[in-house]
Prior knowledge:
The chain has helices at residues 12-18, 21-29, 32-45, 50-74, 78-82, 91-102, 104-121, 127-142, 147-172, 176-182, 192-201, 211-218, 227-263, 280-292, 294-330, 339-358, 364-392, 401-427. The protein is mainly alpha-helical. The protein has one domain: Amino acid/polyamine transporter I, CATH 1.20.1740.10. Helix 4 crosses helix 12 (211-218) and helix 7 (104-121) packs across helix 8 (127-142). The longest helix is centred in the middle third of the chain and has 37 residues, at 227-263. The radius of gyration is 21 Å and the shape is globular.
Amino acid sequence: MSESGISPPRTFSGKLKMIGPGIILAAAAIGSGELILTPRAGALFGLSIAWIILISVVYKLFLTLGLARYTIAMGEDIFVGFSHLPGPRFWFVWTMGAIYLLGAVGYAGISLACGSALYALFPSLSMLQWAVIVVIFAYALLLSGSYEPVEKAAFLLSFVLIVGVLYSLAALRPGAAWFFQGLSPRLPAGSGQTAVSLLGWTAGGTSTLIYSFWILEKGIGGGRAERKDFKGWLSLIRLDTGISYLLMFFISFAFLTIGVLVLSTAGPDGGPLIPAREETTSVLSRLLTVATGPQTKFVFLVAAFAILYSTVIGLVDGKSRALRSAVHMIFPKSKRISDKNMYRIFATLMCLIIFAFLFTKSPVVLIVLISAVEAPVLSISAIALIYLMHRRLPRPMRPGLLWHMVIISGTLVYLFLSGAFLIKTVFGSN
């Protein structure tokens, strides 16, 4: 048994009862990237670019499994693990904390997009008014500081999302032959920028690290797991993350498909129609109405709302937990404030940042820069995780050759592509 006396579930039904952190991760990771980026990519390059989404999902799945392995073996979140990295003390914890806090600026845009979906459904209130309501309801849910309401919300919103996407696809009636014809993997001319964006944004970015905090909240591992229970907990984690990343791939691929079917020939000259990012949801819903009827528009907009609202809840919750851990670690005297109250402080701060940028012009340069930094920082996180695995975990608890091969090769690809993207973003090279 683990240190707390909790044993891992042995049966499949017992494991199903304990899944949850992966569903929250999926709900947080499936966001504006899937709703906006993948339809645009589909319109421009078709299904041939789907293999990039698959690579992103596989890499992040293996990274998440590594995070879980470390957390279960050591009984500590990954931020505590990062405090053991060589160099100035807490340097990477400071880095991640800053990225997480500044990232809240971008959540204002997600909240406005959520308000846009509600406005299209119920135009009695403006997009801004709906966005304000969205943030208020998200804050009310998070204010308790409890894990369970967030998990229940993630399950409900994920169910709504799956039903909505399946209905939208069914209404478009793509044939099996059409899928197989378009799935030939290649990198079309001019798709380099889109490929980098898909690698960075699909299946989440640095939000992947939050999984470490959620499995501790769920009680998976029961503290620092003993070796005889370790494999049992890993079996549960594989099921939890497997469902999570299968959902992420399905949603990303579904919106790629919707983009191909709806946008690729909707332009005035019969070519692709590429709406502005903030207009993607409304354009898709309008074209779906033309193609399949008004009921599909309603279902699609409900699914879009579920995507965006779950993203706000998941990201604010998870990053508030991460920031709480960082502050308690860097400033030991802050432990006089309970974990729950410290969580509430950061959830309040992040929601205030969102509110502030709902009513002011968003600093686009800051948002773009944070987005560009996400992929290389995630790569550095993977390198740090490899170090921690070999430095702190007993040999029997370390991952095998396959995990190392996927993480090392994926990290090299991410560093190369994201480095080029970051240079282009910062220096504006063509």
